[in-house]
Amino acid sequence: MPEQVTEGPAAAVRVEGLWKRFGEQVAVAGVDLVLPAGRFVGLVGPNGAGKTTTLSMVTGLLRPDGGRVEVVGHDVWRDPAAVKARIGVLPEGLRLFERLSGRELLAYTGRLRGLPGDEVDKRAAQLLDVLDLAGARDKLVVDYSTGMRKKIGLAAALLHNPEVLFLDEPFEGVDPVSAQTIRGVLERYTGSGATVVFSSHVMELVESLCDWVAVMAAGRIRAQGTLADVRGGAGSLQEAFLELVGAVGRDTGESLDWLGGAR
Amino acid sequence: MTLTGVFVRLKLSLLRNGLRQSAGRTAAYVVSAVLAVLCGAGLVLALVVLRGSEHAATVAVLLTGLLAVAWAVMPLFFPSGDETLDPTRLVMLPLQPGPLVRALLVSSLVGFGPLFTLCLAVGSAVALSRGAFAAVVAVVAVPLVLLVCVALARAVAAGNVRLLTSRRGRDLAVLSGLVIAVGIQFVNFGVQRLGRAGGLSALDPAAEVVRWVPPASAVAAVGSAGEGRYGEAAAGLLLSAAALGALLYAWRRSLVKLMTAPDGSTLAAASRPSRAGSPGWRWPEGRAGTVVGRSLRYVVRDPKTKAAWVTSLAIGLIVPLFNALQGTGSVYLACFSAGMLGILMYNQFGQDASAFWMVALTISSARDAYAELRARALALTVITLPFVVLVTGVTAAVLGDWWALPGALGLSFGVLGAMLGTGAVASSLFPYSIPQDSGFKNVAPGQAGLAWISLTGGMVAAALLCAPLVALTVWLDATTGPAGRLLLLVLGAGWGTLLTWAGLRLAAPRTADRLPEILAAVSRG
Known about the structure:
The complex is a heterodimer of chains A (about 260) and B (about 525). Chain A has about 260 residues and is an alpha/beta fold. Helix content of chain A is about 35%, strand content about 25%. In chain A, the strands form 2 sheets. In chain A, strands 6-7-8-3-9-10 form a 6-stranded mixed beta sheet, sandwiched between helices. In chain A, strands 2-1-4-5 form a 4-stranded antiparallel beta sheet, with helices on one face. Chain B folds into 2 domains: about 5-180 and about 195-270, no CATH class; about 285-520, no CATH class. In chain B, about 75% of the residues lie in helices and about 0% in strands.
């Protein structure tokens, strides 16, 4: 059973009855979520579960058909100024301003957020250093590799020191070295009391990083709670997940008996 | 089945699949196919009619030369136009270069382009051939022309795959739309010139040179044979045949190299860090300077933005200036330049594509949206204002009509202001996606109506808003002296500023309210 979350300011994100339809297709069908502050939260689910749609609505990039979203106590749609100042976002599948260099992208983002120029440049230089992008800081983002793009996106999301960080598939297509760098930065960030919410379909990753998990399938939340709660009696999060989304007992290829047989 | 057979079938299925797309695309496909066939038939007819005319050789030779240039340039402009053109797709298959070249060459002969070329070659041969020997030469020349054209396209494509698959190559392809847009203007004025300069005989010197360039040399050979100059005929044919051989050899070599060496993307990633301009240049504080800085960088670095700018600048210069040079213009035509550049204010957020989310996350009030839109208008003004002044001044100088300059400037400022204002409103109410990877599509599928409403509605509104200014200009121009003309300049500038301000004020709250809708609309490309 999900752990009962204490009411009040402890919740970083509170979602009630969130709905989104695209034509006939229901992408998100009544999501209720309470994500505690100061945790490393994983939103897991198979492809098409509605993770990206949910995160887009929570961050104010997509208008929901119904429901309420609160981030650190502020309504995303009624008080956008308070929310936008407190969140950092790294969406999946949306471009960056790729014809800027890494350094220019950070300079641009920070100044749009209203930070003083000197402070922006100082933080940008440090972030580029820590994320191992210093050597590519004057290269155009369009020439970056996937891992480098995720890292510069993360840097842009962290620049204004947000309270809650939303990352959509931050490790997708990222090489192990970059992944380790991203991990290190995120762990230090949550250690300071900030909240990270990230989506993924790699269970091992979620299991090793997160202390709070929400499992999503077919537009609904199937389970949410601490990692131990969600895992329950199953041996690993992977097994618990397959059970939750109802993918246990499928034909795993026994009918392909010719594969690997005599050639 | 032989390899050649497989490739020809592949090409036929690709052509057939062109018919199986969505209704709109099928219609476009059928229309372009019918158009190609009609043009080809018309060309044959025209050339046959030319038979016996003294200009027949000139026309046939130059048309063939032009067509060959088109074949050579085509793969650079449409790198994704023909899937069988990209040999890197075949790398994993166990194929020998010899049979592969043969198969690709034969399959290249299938399609509307080759059909059109065949029409031209046959038409030229018919127009030029006189006598039995010329007919024999024609039978050799026609397939030779076709093969040289196709091999030329293939060799250019294979030789440049490395360029075309790199980012720089794709940027180049996006810029190609611009070459065509501006080129059409030049051709237009060139044809007007030719019309007055005494007709086709003006082209004879060009034809004298082109007749020795393959594949036009094969067409010229038909004419030479008809006139009894057998040596010339043989030389022409030989030249084309040698060119075919050389092209096939070059093509084969680059194919082998392509299939055994690492591809362009690997090489590009491994070497050559892109230069990103002036690292020493400091970004200014606040949204205004930051947004202007970003917008101006995009004018230089983003091929799509650059293409739009260069097209607007070039056409905005060519139309008033060339008309003035031909003595038919008026200084007031320079307002066209202001209108042309003002179009760039339309669909501002569509120009960001899905990167608009980065902007959306920093806008949480109408005030933020106003600052953003104002900065974008400012970035536009930084370039357009001096340019409009320059074009108006030069036009006035060419026409020697300095009297009209202040009035024309005032009107230009008014038009520019109206376009900026209506452009801001249209940007927030009717945003649409601009496909980033194509030099020719400026609207994503399904949003053409939206784009049309945005541009047409906006321009009609801008015209109406400028109507009082136009009326005033016409009235004062006829009645007033120097003071009145200066008044026109001041009034125009003031009216333009007012319209821009009002447009931004109107657009800002709507932009702030519609951020998710705008993001959804511009992320389709």
